[in-house]
Structure formats: structure tokens, C-alpha cells
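User: Can you write out an input/output pair for a complex, sequences first and structure second?

Assistant: Here is one pair. Inputs:
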Amino acid sequence: MTNYIFITGGVVSALGKGIASASLGALLESRGLNVSFAKLDPYINVDPGTMSPFQHGEVFVTVDGAETDLDLGHYERFVRTTMSKNNNFTTGQIYANVIDKERQGQYLGATVQVIPHITDEIKACIELSANNADVALIEIGGTVGDIESLPFLEAIRQMRVSFGRHVLFMHLTLVPYIKTAGEVKTKPTQHSVKELRSIGIQPDILLCRSEEAMSDEERAKIALFTNVPSESVISLMDVDNIYKIPQLLHQQKLDELMIQQLQLSAPPANLSDWDAVIAKSEQTQHQVNVAMVGKYVHLTDSYKSLSEALIHAGIHTQTKVNIVYVDSEKIETDGIRCLENMDAILVPGGFGERGIEGKIATVRFAREHKIPYLGICLGMQLAVIEFARHQLGLTQANSTEFDSNTPDPVIALITEWQDQSGTIETRHQDSALGGSMRLGGQACQLMRGSLIHKVYNKHEIVERHRHRYEFNHCYLSDLQQAGLVISGKSLDGQLVEVIEIADHPWFIGCQFHPEFTSTPRDGHPLFSSFIEASYQFQQSKTSEKQKNTKGFPS
Ligand code: GLN
């Protein structure tokens, strides 16, 4: 039977509930248990696919093609289990399911209500997400006290009644340090637990976010006021590296506490993988500056998986990676100079027209100055446009996403070019909003002898997609003749997946998103190779400089 750990949050949002939940998963996995996750989001959107990255952060894409909350990315980075569309539910989706059933007459004339129909649907989704794991970690989005999350809390309250000791409630709160008083304050935690208890949930374990480790007295005080044993008041202090959190929790015996409360038996924790990650990340030998030129640079959560993937690459190449976020609109107004000292340039995925010309100027700069370049999804499409404009002389080349009247649509919807090129059968027919996207894990064949083939050391890879537009086959041979290398294609050979530039030391554009499969323990070959190339480029700049200064009289 599956055991459930429900993680709620109190006091304020953005306490890192996702990372805390993921770390709990890593800890349980280190004890040989099989874990699963679910994130329940209290908003009305059916999924975050249509939500602005400016507001909501990154949309994480699962291998089965679901557009989900970024917390699923944290889960996949901390445990070996792969997430699917069944691991993220929103209020909108729950209501949509219930309304569908009502329309089909499945409620047999009953008055359909929040309790029991919505709560039953929530419970069904939770059980579906558990997928027979030993322990299912269920994170409730939002903050206790919000109106929106009440049905979720009611559902999990009911689950404790049904499953008894197989259910554990964990509550994440904030214990702030008040500078002027020179002490930490436990009152917000007391109030948050009071709020939770008023809806019938007594937490079993408290995870307290604080700047420093809490003293035994502070833990005892919280215990007294919240009715939680003091050994179950866990101090989750700030750390310089999120991958230290499983260790931090283990040091406070949290794994033992969870296992005892759920009455499970499990071997002792083996955190050697995580020890290795930390040890490697503390043995960096050099550092590089990587420019990330995008649109959502003011909310770095928008590029969460990407920035983590670069950090993982640093761990695996003993390099400290400094990510320099550059707003591509600023390049349009202030020019390209801000990229001059960079060791590598990355243009990430994105949607819409804003800042596009700044990104194209960025690609040109990387290509002409032979700076290592990685273009992901939109970053690959813009590399094709830049190449068509400046190497093939198609000065108005564009994507139909940004200019529907361009005379040279080198990037376009398949439906816009398939007739002309006489290739593609109708392979993407879903027309619902978001439905025309190519989503999820898809296989791609790599061309022998290419850089990407060397990087992956494989003929066939599977990576995740999230885009509507594609490389236009009608321009394939012209672009190839001008020196663009097509080094990856879909298995049927009809869609371009990877492009390179022959006379450039490291220039790769990929239509897929490799960042979704990078983990701290395993890294990712594409990002590791990119970071290695950035270090080599930095070294070549230094030796070039030394050469140039030689010969001058001292
Ligand atoms: N906007 C582009 C498309 O839809 C690229 C999407 C992306 O970068 N994820 O094809």
C-alpha cells in the first residue's frame, strides 16, 4: 500500500516547497524506497502551458508531453523517477474533470458539490499520481489560509481519516530573523499551524525555513505551541547549494522520523551520490562567463531547468559557471558590447516577437567571433534565420511567427511549407490551444561525424520538445550549400532537429530542450561539452593575448 506525505506551506509563498519536497524524495530514495510526486496547483488554468513565464516561471515539459509546473523539474533533478502528465493537477483540471462527468450524467442526478465531488476527484488524482510507489509525496501549492487551496486541504484531511498511519502531514513555514530585535520569531509559524489545525489538519512534522540553524530552545518553543514533538521541528536553514538539502535533512534524522511514523522498514540512508555531487561542486578549477540572452531575464525562474543544467555541467567539468543574464531588447538599444567578454553564448527557448532582432544580432556575434554558441529551440530557429540572412543573402529571412509576410520563411509552421516541399504527411493535427505544439520526448537521429554525434556519442537520442514552428525544408539544400550543417533529424528524416556551422569550433542549435533531462548526478553531455568549449575558448583568448604582447620592448 502506498504511503502519503502531504507537504503544505505557510506564512509566505516562495519558501522553496518544491525543492524541500524534492529533497524529501531524494532522502527516501536513498533509503531504498520507491517514491512518486504530485504537485496540486490551486489556480483555474487547466495547465501552466498558457501562463506567462514572467509570472509563473518556467513551464516544465514531461517526457509524455505535458506542460507542467516547474516543481516537477525539481523532482526529476532530485530522484530517479520520471514525471508524467499524472503528476501535476490544477483546480481548473479537477473542475474540468468533474464538469465532464456531470455532462455525461455520471453523477446520476446528484447535486454536484465541492464536497464530496470535487474532493473525491482530488483524491482520485492523488491516488493516480502515486502509481503504486512506496511513498507518494504530494505538494499542495499556495499558502495555508488561501481560499483557493481549501478543497485540496479538505481532501487530504479526509485521506488521513481513510488511511490513518499511512498519511503524514508536513508543513513548511518561515521563522524570520528580526534584525532590530536581534532574534528569530516563532509567532508566524504558530499562527500558520493554528490555521491548519482549524481545518482539521495537525501537522506531524514542521520544516522551518530560517537564515541560520535554529537553537534547541527555539525548536522547543515551536513544539510547545504547535503540538508537534520538538524532534519533529526541523531546521531548514539557507544553504549555498540546494543539492546539500538532502544531507541537511538527514543530519536531523528526518528520514528516520518519516519512516518510523509511516511504520516502514528500510535500509540505512546511502547518500553517497549526493556526497559526490557536493564534493565535485566544491572542487572547481576554473570559471567561465556564459551569457544567457533572452526575454525573461528579470525572473530567472523562467529559465530554471536551463540554469540548473549549466550548474550541473559546471559540477561535471569542475568549472564555476557564472550565468550572465542579458535582456535581448537591451542589445537592440545599446548594442552587442555587453557580450564582448563572454566565454560562451546561449539563446534559450521563447515565444513572441519581443527582443528577436537583439537575439539575431547575438547569434551573428557568436558565429563571426567563433564564440561557443548553444541555441535552444527558438535559439536554433534564430541561428537558421541569421545564417540565411548573412550567409545566404536572404536579407529578409524570418520565421512566420514574427513576420507572416516574410519572402523567405526559413522557419514556419509545417502546414505553411509541407505542400511546397511535398514531404510531410499530416502529423500534427491537434488544433486546440497549445495542441498544435510538438510536445514531449521524441527520437532524433544524429549524423555521424558531426559535433553533436561526438557530444552524445550516440546515433539516436530522445529529447523533449515544446514548439510550433519548424525548419522549412524548402530551404534545406540552399542553406546546406552555404555551409549550414544539418546534423540531427527526426527519425522519419522530415524535421530538422540539430544544426551546426562547419567552420566554427562549437556552434550547435537544437530544436529540442536538453535542459529538461539534465540532473546534478548525471549532468548532460550537451551542456558539459558546451562548458568545456567555453573554457577552451577562454584559454585561447588568453594565449592570443599573450602572443600579441610578446615582441614589445619591456
Ligand atoms: N516560438 C518558437 C516555436 O513555437 C520556439 C518555441 C521554444 O523556443 N520553445 O516554435
